[in-house]
Amino acid sequence: MSDTSYWLDESAEIPTGPRHTGAVDVAIVGGGVTGCACALTLAQAGARVRLHEARTIASGASGRNGGFALRGGAMLYDRAVETLGAEHASAFWRLTERALDRMEELAGDAFRRVGSLRLAADEKERGELRAESDALLADGFAVEWLDELPEQLAGRYLGAILHPGDGALQPARWVRRLAAHAAEAGASDGYPSGLLAALDGAVQPTRGQIVTTEPLPELLYDRPHYARQGLDYWQQLPDGRLVAGGRRDAAHEAEFTAEEATTEPVQAALESLVRDLVGRLPSITHRWSGIFGTTADRLPLVGAVPEHSGLWVARGYSGHGNVLGLASGELVANAILGRREPELELFDPARVL
Fold this sequence. Notes:
This protein is α+β, with helices and mostly antiparallel strands. It is built from seven helices and 16 strands. The strands form four sheets. The protein has an eight-stranded mixed sheet, sandwiched between helices.
């Protein structure tokens, strides 16, 4: 059994770009989806860019998550309308839909646009999801409410929202491919540097633990599934393996940490989830964890850092980094290039810094 992320176990040639000598126009810290997306957009515009990464491309959260590519953010859409206003909430969701289209354009076989299913685990969650479905439909978003569920879900879940434009992702392969695009456009590689300490208090590190099983003989789940406000999530890969994550409420406070480690309580809870999903406990081949950042208002911090001229940040996606990271990296790059997009106002770091 491996304690390495299943996604990172895939052999790959790590892309490298040219070594720019001397100063560059933009230095980027972080070789995940956000940094690589920002580097690609800047390099394609002719900027001299150097990317710094402490480990290797996709070695952090971008290569250690559940492989979900979802539109929207951590809030349910109807709550986003109440919190942000209808115009801003709609713009947020449209931004992520465009990012999914962009991902499909760049990711190749790392991305499968199969939709996602958000499940109601109890009557309270069913009511919440039904309200979100109604709000999405009212604002013209593609969504389908399901009362009747497939046999393996019926009786355990009380309805679901189908988001047809979402997808399944091999996240490490995707980010490595994005880095290769950036390198081809002229972004160079570098070495790590420090981050701004003032940001630490605004983003809470949160650990997500995941397991992967041996290939199963039957296809049980044809798209990403998630329930209990994202505390349970799983997808089945084309080779039959089941990737399942979450259950951090088995040791809730202990999972607010930056330590990349697996723990017995959460791993046992994940085994229970897998057993419920499959009807037995197949062999577990990989167990791993990854750290993502959560903000108090569940909105990312994306934009210029107040009182620090020339410094920009994009972080705090609250579990939705695969798509929001791509969108945010491009938003920052375009702003640096003088093309400030209106969606950037939604995520202004000045609201918390």
